[in-house]
Amino acid sequence: MSRQIWFLRCLLGLLVAVIIVFLITHNRVSRWTCGSSCRSQTSETVEPRGLAESRIPVTMVVVTCGDRFEVTMANLKSAVAFSRAPLRLLLFADAENIQRLDDTIKDWPANVLERVTYELRLVRPPKGPDMIKE
């Protein structure tokens, strides 16, 4: 039963993180969708790979709990592979996954690590009357 509660809390944390990223992204995109009144502003263009350093970093928030390490790594690798902008990763993980995340990311190639910054934060399950002991 406590695993189900833990899983639901991790899922809720992931949902909150996705909503935050969506809101941040939506605010950036809305600047470019103002119609004919934007004629004097510079339009967004696709930049060559070499100019990625001059762009604003994209922030990605990920929550990893339990046995979801492999899924998290697949998501992170996809984001790195398909992003032209620098990435800022905010990684929230439980005690069993936080060191694995750090070790795995440190093993990425140097050219990837040049455009990726990351922060690791420990997620602790709440202690209180709502936690059911097995």
UniProtKB/TrEMBL annotation:
Per the record, GO CC terms? membrane
Say yes or no: keyword Protein transport present: no
Return the similarity comment: Belongs to the glycosyltransferase 8 family.
Q: State the organism of origin.
A: Ixodes ricinus (Common tick)
What are the protein's UniProt keywords? Glycosyltransferase, Membrane, Signal-anchor, Transferase, Transmembrane, Transmembrane helix
Q: Where are the transmembrane segments?
A: 6-24
Q: How does it sit in the membrane?
A: Single-pass type II membrane protein
User: What PANTHER family does the record tag this protein with?
Assistant: IP22168P
Q: Which Gene Ontology BP annotations are present?
A: protein O-linked glycosylation via N-acetyl-galactosamine
The cellular location(s) given in this protein's UniProt record come to: Membrane
Predominant location: membrane
**A single GO molecular function term of this UniProt record:** UDP-xylosyltransferase activity
The record's listing under InterPro entries reads: Glycosyltransferase_8
Please report the name of this protein according to its UniProt entry: Putative glycosyltransferase domain-containing protein
